[in-house]
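As agreed, record minuted below.
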Amino acid sequence: MRILELSAHDWDIRQPHETHAHLSPTAVPALLSAMPVLQVQLLGLRVTEAERLDGVYALRAGDAAWGVKIQGKTVTPLQGVPRECNVGLSTDAESMILLTVGRADVTEKLQSAALTITGDVEQGQQLCATLFRAY
């Protein structure tokens, strides 16, 4: 978590002054390796029974990929990437990190095609709204 805090804070400081501020390239691999666990934790706190998120999800960030299953309020990490899923989200590593920590705009990423949703698009948008919201 400390590397995430330091990287996000560094980006927060530079972003208003640098047109295209990026996360530290040396931190991105470590941050990306923590995303599956962080996302499961965030979803576990944020998913409500009222949301219709039941299903299997594949998340891809550059060359990295992982899966989660949501059933009711239970979020379970999957071993590897599911071959069949309800929704697939795909983006680059930096965008996945910035989206997860609430620093990137989902709508902007979708409109620019930096973030793509495959499968059930409506369910994918609901997942994005739940997972990628600002704190």
